[in-house]
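Problem statement: downstream parser choked on a complex file, so we are re-checking the raw output for the zinc ion run. The parser issue turned out to be on our end (a line-ending mismatch), but while we're here, posting the original submission so the record is complete.
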Amino acid sequence: MTKEELLAKYKEWELKTSAYKMALAIIGIDKQTVAPEGGAPYRDKRTAVLAGELFSLQMDPENIEVLRELMKMDLDGDTAKAVKMNYDEIMKTVAVPKDEFVAYQNLTNEAYGAWLDAKNRSDYAAFEPYLEKLIEGTRKMYEYRDSDLSLYDRMLDDYEPGMTQEKYDVFFDRLKERIVPLIRRVTEAQKIDTSFLHRNYPVEEQKKFMDELLQYLRFDPYWGYLNETEHPFTSGTCENDCRTTTKYLPDNVASAILSTVHEVGHATYGHQTAPEYDGTILAEAISMGMHESQSRLCENYLGRSKPFWEANYPRLQKHFPEQLGDVSLDAFVAAINAAEPSLIRTEADELTYPLHILVRYEIEKGLFNGTISTKGLDQTWNEMYAKYLGVTVPDARSGILQDVHWAGGSFGYFPTYALGSAFSAQFMHAMRKDLDVDECLRNGQYDVLMGWLKEHIHKYGARYNADEVMRLATGEPFNPDYYLDYLEDKYTKLYNL
Ligand code: ZN
């Protein structure tokens, strides 16, 4: 085949796969937001058929041949990168025998049910046999892969291409050195009053404020849509179809607000990726850490800052005069930044959060390197929480069984959460060199800040890897010191240490 014929075949395959992906994405969003629970069995069965069709299409030997041929040819940069990415993705799975792949899928489905049940009863021993099987099954899946990396490195690489245990070890060691003592000092300092955040905040009024906040965030209904769900997430199909969700709590006014600023950060990334990448692999996330860096930048570095609230707090007070009329701007900003070691990762504050990840990283590493066993792992977990966070875990439900990731066979995912926060610190440092960020926040010029992110990060989509984007945007490789300096500076001031 000529180059033109190969490219035509490739484009046809790309269009078809993106159509299946779009259908599955919309079905997934629908399931998690508005679809009636009763229809789930019917829908799930048909959804599995579509997912199977997509899988066959992706693994189609004829297409693999087309990709191989194209890789030998002289292509434009975007196409060459997309072809290579598609090929690498396919090679990750193609060697797994179909029956083993299906068996593994069944195992994760079964394990999810077992996890949910064990969590409800706070019974780690009931989940332990599944965890053991999951580790065995995951190990086997990754052994099929043609790679020089160690097994756990292969897993890490799936979520954050280029990251290895060696690199994460350096990162987490630095973090441990500086953050563990800092948390100790914060714990000993005088507590910040957060009680007023938990007064009664009627949800209908919260929604009215949210409409105003979405305008401030430049979240435009032309390309974005905000829904409600139990666990907020962001998804979408293309540049101009970004779906995000939030959750309102009547006894916590900051929860929906900060969660929305976070999710709109993800959505804005999707919206600002170069439109010509729509429907191609280049519009997908570079890495979990990079996507998370953009949402955390919006949530923590912008949304929790005083200048952000100089613009938005008077509006919030107007909606809740009884609840916040007697609370000063400074007291409010301090409260939404307060830190205290706790048990649950998803509810952790900005300072203690990375230590929740450290615990999970050390456990995963031990599980796959054979130094930690699933037997008695709940005790290991509790000991680590005592050591790093200084908290006592009362039961498995608020300990080892709190997260869904392992039950779904996701090992190697957690570390990206900590990495994302660290990436954002370095991006913020670069952004501050170009812009008066505080003035933009005060004046409602959130679009100027988003414009900077578009120009230096978002527009590239997955065209470059995380390391390359970091260099393009900040002029240097990833350096965790920006993050650690930021945390030290912020919490030393906040708690007058
Ligand atoms: Zn996120």
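For whoever reads this later: The pocket of zinc ion is lined by residues 262, 266, 292, 295 (CB under 6 Å).
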